[in-house]
């Protein structure tokens, strides 16, 4: 994928050396932006072998809304370093995507959805929570018959919760995304505060592109573009050689995705098939914890 290789090249050439909490220094760039057209194929990197199955398990873990990795860690180790022995995490994307806490005490005049909303439920511990994915999907469906829907430019999912993020071991990196409809195309923009170009970004790109395709199918749109802003886009110093090796490789034809004909919330791992994926060999990168 040209856009990815351009980013690698740009950050290697223009990035500034920076220290960070991990002890492995990075070359960092401020606010990198790229976009890919999903009608050209599925943007799974071909210049190294990608672990599509790990990424797919991770996406279904987000969609499950689980706040822990007790199930995810049976299938992939990619989140193990940030959880405790019981699989508990201080922050989990899916918990906020699907079960964002809703306050029950309001200031005068302020509004919050309550249990009468179709996206709000009360959990067994008494907490009211909001399903942001459900809200986006239902609104996108309503927009098919009402293009002037009042929430048409408010299709936002937020994984950031300040009271959690300020003290968490690992607050969300890809912390908010927005959907946008143009014609019959569904576009998605992801904002990421911090992006590990060798390891995290290829997963994030593949994950959100697939999510956009799944939501487009569910709601009756064609997949449009995936656009990605990465605020601190960085290359860890011990990833430079592997990325330079990738730059020497010619990108191959993009793969495709087939999604089973099922309602979105019934889709599982086996319902998503990666078709015609060919890639250059694996490049091993060590993850900075
Ligand atoms: N430094 C750092 N980079 C990240 O990308 C990252 C974090 N930390 N912390 C939280 C999550 C975990 N993520 C990860 C963690 C590991 C891999 C990884 O090791 N990928 C390998 C092998 C994948 C596998 O074994 O399935 C790869 O080659 O892609 C990828 C994403 C993304 N995030
Ligand atoms: O989905 C993800 C999750 C994490 N990352 C990377 C970005 C950074 O290299 C680390 C997080 O460290 P912070 O000090 O909290 O920024 O993980 C990613 O690229 N994608």
TrEMBL record:
One example GO MF annotation: thymidylate synthase activity
Subcellular localization: Cytoplasm
Pathway in which the depicted protein is active: Pyrimidine metabolism; dTTP biosynthesis
Catalytic activity: dUMP + (6R)-5,10-methylene-5,6,7,8-tetrahydrofolate = 7,8-dihydrofolate + dTMP
Pfam families, sorted: Thymidylat_synt
Annotated CDD domains: TS_Pyrimidine_HMase (cd00351)
Record protein name field: Thymidylate synthase
Organism: Sebaldella termitidis (strain ATCC 33386 / NCTC 11300)
UniProt lineage: Bacteria, Fusobacteriati, Fusobacteriota, Fusobacteriia, Fusobacteriales
Gene name of the record: thyA
């Amino acid at each position: 994928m040209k856009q990815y290789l351009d980013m690698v090249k740009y950050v290697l050439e223009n990035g500034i050396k920076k220290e960070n909490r991990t002890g492995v220094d990075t070359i960092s760039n401020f606010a990198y932006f790229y976009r890919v057209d999903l009608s050209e194929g599925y943007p799974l990197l071909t210049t190294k072998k990608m672990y599509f199955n790990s990424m797919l398990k991770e996406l279904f873990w987000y969609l499950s809304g689980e706040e822990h990795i007790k199930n995810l860690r049976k299938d992939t180790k990619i989140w193990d370093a940030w959880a405790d022995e019981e699989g508990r995490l201080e922050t989990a994307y899916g918990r906020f995507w699907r079960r964002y806490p809703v306050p029950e005490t309001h200031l005068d005049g302020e509004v919050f959805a309550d249990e009468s909303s179709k996206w709000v439920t009360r959990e067994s511990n008494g907490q009211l929570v909001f399903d942001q994915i459900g809200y986006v999907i239902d609104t996108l469906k309503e927009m098919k018959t009402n293009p002037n829907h009042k929430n048409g430019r408010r299709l936002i999912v937020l994984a950031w919760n300040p009271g959690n993020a300020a003290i968490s071991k690992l607050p969300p990196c890809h912390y908010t995304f927005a959907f946008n409809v143009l014609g019959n195309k569904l576009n998605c923009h992801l904002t990421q505060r911090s992006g590990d170009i060798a390891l995290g970004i290829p997963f994030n790109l593949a994950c959100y592109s697939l999510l956009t395709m799944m939501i487009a199918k569910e709601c009756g749109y064609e997949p449009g573009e995936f656009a990605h802003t990465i605020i601190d886009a960085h290359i860890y110093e011990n990833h430079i050689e592997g990325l330079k090796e990738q730059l020497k490789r010619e990108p191959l034809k993009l793969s495709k995705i087939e999604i089973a004909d099922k309602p979105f919330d019934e889709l599982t791992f086996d319902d998503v098939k990666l078709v015609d994926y060919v890639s250059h060999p694996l490049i091993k990168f060590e993850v900075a914890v």
